[in-house]
């Protein structure tokens, strides 16, 4: 999915964090274009799309059928679930 042969530029960590922060603050965006326009810095659309693909692949966002982008990652909830789960010895 993220092979070198089709990616011109890989995003820097600060750019990924900027996109993550914008999605977290809003909780949802109707379109990718609206999210891109809301960012404080300009970036190439291919780089932006790669970031969204990565965030969806890693389970941090979900894109609905109508194009709405929603932040779904909940680290506090994950910690709660993991702390309540009994560890099974293997």
Commentary on this structure:
With 90 residues, the chain is mostly helical. It has a single domain (4-84), classed as Arc Repressor Mutant, subunit A, CATH 1.10.10.10. The chain has helices at 13-26, 32-38, 45-57, 75-84, and strands spanning 28-29, 61-63, 69-71. The chain has a 3-stranded antiparallel sheet. The protein starts with 12 loop residues before the first helix and ends in a 6-residue tail after the last helix. 9% of the residues are buried.
Mean pLDDT level: 84
What is the top-level CATH class?
Mainly Alpha
Classification by helices and strands: mainly alpha
Number of helices, where a helix is a run of at least 4 consecutive DSSP H or I residues: 4
Please state roughly what percent of the residues sit in beta strands, choosing from under 5%, 5-15%, 15-25%, 25-35%, 35-45% or over 45%: 5-15%
Radius of gyration: 16 Å
The 3D shape can be described as globular
CATH superfamily: Winged helix-like DNA-binding domain superfamily/Winged helix DNA-binding domain
The main β sheet shows up as: 3 strands, antiparallel
How many structural units, i.e. domains? 1
What are the key terms here?
90 residues; three-stranded antiparallel beta sheet; 9% strand; 4 helices; 3 strands; globular; Arc Repressor Mutant, subunit A; mainly alpha
Topology readout:
Elements (H helix, E strand, L loop, with lengths): L12 H14 L1 E2 L2 H7 L6 H13 L3 E3 L5 E3 L3 H10 L6
Antiparallel strand pairs: 1-3, 2-3
């Amino acid at each position: 999915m993220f092979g070198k042969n089709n990616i011109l530029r890989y995003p820097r960590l600060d750019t990924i964090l900027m996109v993550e922060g914008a999605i977290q603050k809003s909780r949802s965006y109707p379109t990718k274009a609206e999210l891109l326009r809301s960012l404080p810095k300009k970036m190439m659309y291919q780089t932006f799309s790669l970031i969204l693909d990565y965030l969806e692949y890693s389970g941090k966002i979900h894109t609905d059928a109508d194009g709405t982008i929603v932040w779904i990652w909940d680290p506090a909830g994950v910690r709660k679930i993991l702390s309540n789960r009994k560890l099974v010895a293997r």
